[in-house]
Amino acid sequence: xxxxxxxxxLLIRAYCVKSLEGDLWLLRKFSDCTTKxxxxxxxxxxxxxxxxxxxxxxxPVRTLDRGASSSxxxxxxxxxxxxxxDTSLLMKYEHHVARHIWFGEERGPKKELKVxxxxxxxxxxxxxxxxxxxxxxxxxxxxxxxxxxSLNKIDTNLVSAFVERWHLETSSFHMPFGEMSITLxxxxxxxxxxxxxxxxxxxxVTEELAVELAVDYLGVSQGQAQSxxxxxxxxxxxxxxxxxxxxxHRAASSWAYATRAYLLMLVGSTIFADxxxxxxxxxxxxxxRDLDGCSGYSWGAAALVTLYRxxxxxxxxxxxxxxxxxxxLQCWIHEYFPTVGKRGENWNPAGNxxxxxxxxxxxxxxxxxxxxxxxxxxxxxxxxxIWRPFEDHRAWRVFDEICLYRGCLKWGExxxxxxxxxxxxxxxxxxxxxxxxxxxxxATDIDVDWISYHQSVxxxxxxxxxxxTPSEVVDGYLEWYYRVSHPRLVPxxxxxxxxxxxxxxxAGPSDPDWARVSTLIRRYLRQVNAEEEDPQFSDLFEAxxxxxxx
Length: 550
Prior knowledge:
By secondary structure, the protein is mainly α. It has 21 helices and 13 strands. Strand 4 (about 170-175) and strand 5 form a beta hairpin. Helix 6 crosses helix 12 and helix 20 runs antiparallel to helix 21 (about 540-550). It is globular.
């Protein structure tokens, strides 16, 4: 094994020496990694460290259960090609976009989703400073941070690639190495929205009531309100109309009317953005009837419930649009997956002075399309993830244990499962096989469960322990996961003709080094569009095979 580790280093160095000076980056990149790699691997027995995926991207059935009988191991798997063998978890997989992608079926001529991003318009509509009379109300509402957090544009290909891995049954993204999700803690750190607070249960708002609300709380005439609601063809207000009302009442010093119009425009352009791209539901005006009391809501839960709902819709093959706040999703990707997608960085976390973390990022036009990103996501390993990206942000947002609440979240009539036990590695705990998801249709006391969250937190972390390595999982987790989920979206024969080895990530703390070396080589070969048949890259491809097979 010493010979193979040394050979790996020599192959990488051989390529760097015979390549152009631009490739000296690779030598620098690997110098530390490969040295540590040799030291770690000499101490380990390499037997059974790597298992190989079959044609559908999974570990063969015979390797799944160490104690299983030979007859059980020989049983034919059921389920979907490329999808779960065990269909008890992902009950809606038949209609999921991933099932169709496996067979090369796209949503339509345009593979990426249409995404509701209002960043550019919001930038022009949010003033540099509000009048003091308004600033007080906006600040106390808990929504002030939303004025500056939106990305100017959204990378629809990047966002779409992750949406294809979302499953509404588990409220999580199904990655090649397990589940991940956008948590309440993520919302708190990225957007600085309050997590604690009450849920909102609205009354039905007809077109007639939408007119009355506009007259009473936005200060418009009856005729103007009727004409506008009629033009919206439902109980909606146009975001542009709300902005005009804000400007009018600000000039007239009608501060309450101006503030309500401004806040409704703000949430309609961010956390409550829908798939109309121009409207906001009139019922949300009820949230701002009492400007002194709207700070009591859990705005963080509201943002999450709305995004979860639209992610669930957009993960279905028949859906072609994504609502909710896409900035929250894209900035979450930037924080957890530093090597996926293109982004601009406005400041380093160490230099942050208390701003929401979403403001760290800016839009940069990506060159990869959604079908380019699919195999890239298929090849991700736990070492490609920053599992706890906000530990350097705790001076401004202390971790709140309510983020480990397991139960249903509610906003309006929308109820979604919130399941931190499925993404424990994001909280610093060892991941175990989680309980079956909650059936929110059967939930009756959601508000009570939310208030008395302590017991659910105990249940979530009581079965785990603090992780010794960031990506640690219990024995058997990956085997279970590969049976109930889909480790990849693209069949290996389509974009990756070579068999792809799967490291057993929970075998020990040194395992990520093998995965990291393989990932670095693979990423570099992708960047230079290398072909295996090209003799210039023969050394690197041989190094890649060595790192993948041991």
